[in-house]
Automatic annotation (TrEMBL):
InterPro entries: AAA+_ATPase, ABC_transporter-like_ATP-bd, ABC_transpr_FbpC, ABC_transpr_MalK/UgpC-like, Mo/tungstate-bd_C_term_dom, NA-bd_OB-fold, OB_MalK-like, P-loop_NTPase
Domain ABC transporter: 4-241
GO molecular function: ABC-type ferric iron transporter activity; ATP binding; ATP hydrolysis activity
Family stated for the protein in its record: Belongs to the ABC transporter superfamily.
Protein name: Carbohydrate ABC transporter ATP-binding protein, CUT1 family
A single cellular component GO annotation: ATP-binding cassette (ABC) transporter complex, substrate-binding subunit-containing
Keyword ATP-binding: yes
Record's keyword terms, sorted: ATP-binding, Cell membrane, Membrane, Nucleotide-binding, Transport
Length: 358
């Protein structure tokens, strides 16, 4: 296991980057705790796989250092870093049996055959392939091959870190849930440092202790699922986490008062006199329809999704979503929306402003 330190780390695929925009991975300074499970979450092209490949040693950063337990491994090859990596698409030895594929990392390190047999049987059961251990990998389905890749990544107990690059892409939905559960159990049992790259918020939030949200080559927030939901530090986090995402409405903010097209909203904290692009962010879960109080709203449609109603609406020309309980009244005379001010966040140029007690 290892604490992983990113020290002034940045990377550009250009030979002579001239500005920040030329960097696929913008400057990072973070310590990732020994034995924690992290998810790297973001949309395609945000830098997740670039960062993972730097950690694994497949890519040398243009700038800065990477340390394992305070040892500089920036120039160390992958083999010296003692990590296991599972890629998006399955990498297996077709001519070998499932058993021999799973055993390969252990035999390669000289482990005795009794231990190899025990560990392979254990991992085979974990990935649901104990009945197929003596079958050759050639001819197996893509999701079966990916389960072999996952198993080979998990078979060693002595690794510094386990790295997963969107490993469940080719796995059927039911098996995704099973394998995520197994990965969490593996982490609980053995305490490996785990880093899991995904663009799927459900995978990230159900797998990780801490989620690392990336946007445009930058880490914009590291937090627990609760922190990402209640206090998104960047508007992208608000958009990306939640279904539907956070409502973002342009506003003027002065002290503890926000003005939206001249209509005032009292805030729980004071923010001074903010300038630039100022917005309020509020989750659909913390908005409710009203007949008289709040901001004027136009309801466009109501979608009954079983557990709740999703109200699609508009406030001063800005689309918003409101989540109402299944038994809540939603009628034509409900022409206003009220926000729970305990959960209203204020943003200046996309970054959350903490504010002070009002």
């Amino acid at each position: 296991m290892a604490k992983i330190t990113l020290d002034n780390l940045a990377h550009s695929y250009l030979p002579k980057p001239q500005s920040e925009d030329d960097y696929a991975l913008k400057e990072l300074n973070h310590d990732w705790q020994d034995g924690a499970a992290y998810a790297l979450l973001g949309s395609s092209g945000c830098g997740k796989s670039t960062l993972l490949n730097i950690i694994s040693g497949l890519l040398r950063p243009s700038q800065g250092r990477i340390l394992f337990n305070d040892r500089d491994v920036t120039d160390a090859p992958t083999a010296e870093r003692n990590i296991a990596q599972v890629f998006q698409f399955p990498v297996v030895y077709d001519t070998m049996t499932v058993r021999d594929n799973l055993a390969f990392p252990l035999r390669n390190r000289g482990r005795d055959e009794a231990y190899v047999a025990e560990r392979v049987q254990e991992i085979g059961a974990m990935i649901g392939m104990e009945h197929m251990l003596d079958r050759r990998a050639r001819g197996l389905t893509a999701d079966a091959k990916q389960k072999i890749s996952l198993g080979r990544g998990m078979v060693r107990k002595d690794v510094n870190a386990l790295l997963f690059d969107e490993p469940l892409t080719v796995i059927d939905p039911h098996m995704k849930w099973e394998l995520r559960t197994q990965l969490k159990k593996l982490h609980h049992d053995f305490g490996h440092t785990m880093i899991y790259v995904t663009h799927d918020q459900t995978e990230a939030l159900t797998f990780a202790d801490k989620v690392v949200v990336m946007y445009d080559g930058r880490v914009v927030q590291i937090g627990t699922p609760e922190e990402l939901f209640q206090t998104p530090e960047h508007t992208f986090v608000g958009y990306f986490i939640g279904s539907p995402g956070m409502n973002v409405i342009p506003a003027e903010v002065n002290g503890a008062t926000a003005r939206i097209e001249g209509t005032e909203l009292r805030l729980k904290r004071g923010y001074g006199d903010l300038s630039g692009k100022v917005e309020l962010g509020v989750r659909p879960e913390f908005a409710r329809l009203s007949r008289t109080e709040g901001l004027p709203v136009t309801v466009r449609r109501v979608e009954d999704v079983g557990r709740h109603k999703l109200v699609r609406a508009e406030v001063f020309g800005h689309d918003i979503n409101i989540i109402a309980d299944e038994d809540d009244d939603v009628s034509a005379d409900m022409t206003h929306v009220v926000f729970d001010t305990d959960f209203v966040n204020v943003y200046a140029n996309d970054w959350r402003v903490p504010g002070e007690a009002a």
